[in-house]
Amino acid sequence: MYDVEPNKLIEETAKELKNDENIDPPEWSRFSKTGAHKERVPTERDWWYVRSAAILRRIYVEPQGVSRLKKAYGGRKNRGYKPEKFATGSGSIARKSLMQLEKAGLVKTDKKEKTGRVITPKGRKFLDNIAHKL
Question: CATH classification of 6-133, choosing from 3.30.750.24, 3.40.710.10, 2.30.110.10, 1.10.10.10?
Answer without folding.
Answer: 1.10.10.10
